[in-house]
Design a protein that fits this description.
The chain has about 350 residues and is an alpha+beta fold. The chain contains nine helices and ten strands. A ten-stranded antiparallel beta barrel has the order 1-2-3-4-5-6-7-8-9-10, surrounded by eight helices.
């Protein structure tokens, strides 16, 4: 059943993000279709969407610009079926959208991994999943798919139990992951889990979590989180600001081919980091220079498309390679529109 009163504000937000995606990835064809694909919106259908847990404002679409030392690329992340009220129907649409993305983006070999994720991490979508069950990420023009399952509806203990069972079923050797999860569940809350990759040779299993209490990152028991690289990122990103406990999202990744620890990530809430919109490009440039990363051109997108930084994060793999991620969401327009915006 589709919503009788569509979320027009959220629909406008989606259209603004699609326009911003075009500015971030000029020359990349099919961005509009790519966004509709992961939102599971049919061709010609308007984005009359409902609430999503992907962003704190309910928008079911998010842009991520990710920079390594080699290049910067745009990733589109969406909550499929956010225009559907019925939770079971929405989950079926999300499942179909995930398998379609795997086929269309060179990751069909990951279909069994997707089924394990859906079976073990979203066992029975109930009322707690009213804002969605699954998020999908793609990089237009590149092979690979990311998929993440929401864990909050399972509860604190249930979320970690599901993660442990999923990793045990997914990794050929789950001893390292079991030891890490056993430590994390004493201090942290599981938020979401999923996979990122294009083939069984490069895919990683990812577990996202938040701190359950104020604590040093070293208490998580992951050496990479205590590294000088992560400390420098936190110093440069936070500046004079602090971040609420709930504004820190952490991630640990495992190599699906071996089961070994692959990487960690720290994401900081952009709302907590109360930089003016015009100040963000300078913050990002400073971090990119420190880690010798590819530049990220943000200034025009933030200004012309009224976007704000939802999260800024740094990933660090076991080889010491950093990656900077900037997640964008719709912000408050800086000026009134020149003409009425279509609904």
């Amino acid at each position: 059943m589709y919503r009788s009163r569509p979320g027009y504000r959220l629909a406008r937000n989606v259209r603004r993000l699609i326009a911003a995606a075009g500015a971030l990835a000029p020359g990349v064809a099919g961005l509009d279709d790519a966004c509709r694909e992961i939102l599971a919106a049919a061709g010609g259908e308007d984005f009359r969407v409902g609430a999503s847990g992907l962003d704190n404002d309910g928008t079911p679409l998010q842009l991520c610009v990710s920079a390594s030392r080699r290049r910067a690329a745009l990733r589109i992340i969406g909550d499929p079926g956010a225009n559907i009220d019925n939770i079971a129907a929405r989950h079926r649409v999300a499942r179909t959208a995930l398998h379609r993305a795997l086929r269309q983006h060179g990751a069909a070999a990951l279909a069994p991994l997707a089924e394990d994720l859906l079976t073990l991490l979203v066992p029975a979508p109930g009322p707690g999943y009213r804002n969605g069950t699954l998020w999908i990420g793609i990089t237009p023009g590149a092979a690979g798919v990311a998929a993440y399952a929401e864990l909050a509806p399972l509860g604190a203990a249930g979320g970690w139990d599901a993660v442990a069972a999923w990793l045990a079923a997914t990794l050929p050797d789950a001893r390292a992951s079991a030891a890490i999860i056993a430590r994390l569940r004493r201090h942290c809350v599981a938020a979401s889990a999923g996979f990122e990759g294009a083939s069984l040779g490069d895919v990683r299993a990812k577990v996202y979590f938040r701190l359950a209490r104020p604590m040093a990152l070293a208490e998580c028991g992951l050496d990479l989180l205590s590294s000088e690289t992560v400390a420098d990122f936190l110093r440069l990103a936070m500046g004079e600001f602090g971040v609420d406990q709930d504004g820190v999202v952490l991630c640990v990744g495992f190599d699906v081919a071996s089961g070994a620890l692959a990487d960690v990530k720290v994401d900081l809430c952009g709302h907590c980091l109360a930089y003016a919109r015009a100040a963000w490009p300078g913050v990002v440039e400073q971090i990119a220079r420190r880690f010798e990363l590819a530049p990220i051109a943000l200034e025009a997108t933030l200004a012309r498309h009224d976007c704000d930084v939802a999260f800024i994060g740094l990933g660090l793999d076991v080889a010491g390679e950093p990656r900077l991620n900037i997640y964008l969401k719709p912000g408050q327009p800086m000026a009134a529109p020149e003409r009425p915006e279509p609904l």
